[in-house]
């Protein structure tokens, strides 16, 4: 019995001491409230620092990396040896999480070939502010852009003319803003675009013999040539000069004046100075003897100014161009 009484007293004593302890805690908090306030503020500050400097950048970058740039049109006007007039029409899709409700500040992006080592941008372009959403238009119009590297742009032009597809990398850095929160993010995108595929499908659709003496440039052949363009690129190329040959024998040279290649299949005027003997072969094209010419570029210029980053790729590209038989 004594043992039971002792245990009861212990339990009773414990219950009686609890309010006293709570009272001590309350007095302690009232006395040192400022310490607890500082501790709470420090705790909130630490959490905010972790969110702003660790979690927010990581989450934002992850969501930006999920987006996809869809290129609808790319226009190059007024090309010169040192600059371009660019217009870009595209959309960004795939934004989720914070990126779907945030906004990217305007940023300068570089364009370069994906596999080029070291990275050598051929141009830079300033993109406007981009708002979050499931499908966000990104449009720039008539932006004068300096050529960053003529050699890199020449390499890009050669691949664009000669390849069925090519991959172009786009890189930039901007600030992502979500309400009052903001963080720096990297924009890294690689897009696969269609190339001109060596101008396959190019064809002389019609031609006419000209009186050389009546032509200011001495041309004795004129007509229309079909140039297919399966790409999204709209390019002003100027006066494109070409060399013509047949079975390894030079026939003459010609010009596609003021060439402006637009997406799709379009015909363009051409003029040529061809050897008289070769005209007989051309005339036979409608008589069951098809003629396929070898056409190679020989430079391009606008108002007499040569465009080397266009001329060099054209001069290295030889195209088999059939002459459509006359009906």
From TrEMBL:
One of its GO terms (cellular component) is fungal-type vacuole membrane. This is Uncharacterized protein. PANTHER family: CHROMOSOME 16, WHOLE GENOME SHOTGUN SEQUENCE (PTHR35895), LIPID-BINDING SERUM GLYCOPROTEIN C-TERMINAL DOMAIN-CONTAINING PROTEIN (PTHR35895:SF1). InterPro entries: DUF3712, Tag1. The keyword Aminoacyl-tRNA synthetase does not apply. Gene3D superfamilies: 2.60.40.1820. The chain crosses the membrane at residues 32-56. It comes from Tuber aestivum (summer truffle). Keywords: Membrane, Transmembrane, Transmembrane helix.
């Amino acid at each position: 019995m004594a043992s039971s009484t002792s245990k009861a007293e212990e339990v009773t004593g414990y219950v009686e001491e609890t309010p006293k302890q709570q009272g001590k805690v309350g007095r302690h908090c009232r006395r040192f409230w400022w310490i607890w306030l500082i501790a709470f503020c420090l705790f909130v500050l630490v959490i905010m620092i972790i969110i702003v400097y660790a979690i927010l950048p990581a989450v934002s970058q992850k969501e930006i990396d999920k987006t996809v740039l869809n290129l609808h049109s790319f226009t190059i006007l007024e090309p010169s040896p040192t600059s371009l007039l660019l217009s870009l029409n595209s959309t960004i899709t795939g934004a989720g999480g914070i990126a779907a409700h945030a906004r990217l500040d305007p940023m300068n992006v570089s364009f370069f070939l994906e596999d080029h080592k070291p990275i050598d941008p051929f141009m830079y372009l300033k993109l406007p502010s981009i708002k979050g959403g499931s499908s966000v238009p990104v449009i720039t119009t008539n932006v004068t852009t300096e050529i960053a590297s003529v050699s890199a742009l020449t390499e890009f032009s050669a691949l664009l003319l000669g390849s069925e597809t090519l991959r172009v990398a786009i890189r930039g850095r901007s600030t992502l803003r979500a309400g009052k929160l903001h963080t720096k993010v990297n924009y890294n995108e690689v897009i696969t675009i269609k190339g001109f595929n060596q101008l396959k499908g190019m064809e002389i659709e019609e031609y006419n013999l000209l009186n050389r003496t009546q032509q200011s440039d001495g041309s004795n052949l004129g007509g229309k040539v079909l140039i297919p363009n399966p790409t999204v690129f709209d390019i002003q190329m100027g006066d494109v000069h070409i060399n013509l040959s047949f079975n390894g024998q030079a026939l003459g040279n010609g010009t596609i004046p003021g060439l402006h290649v637009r997406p799709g299949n379009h015909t363009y005027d051409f003029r040529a100075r061809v050897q008289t003997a070769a005209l007989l072969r051309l005339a036979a094209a409608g008589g069951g003897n098809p003629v396929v010419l070898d056409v190679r570029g020989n430079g391009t210029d606008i108002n007499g100014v040569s465009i080397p980053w266009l001329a060099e790729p054209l001069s290295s590209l030889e195209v088999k161009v059939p002459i459509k038989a006359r009906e």
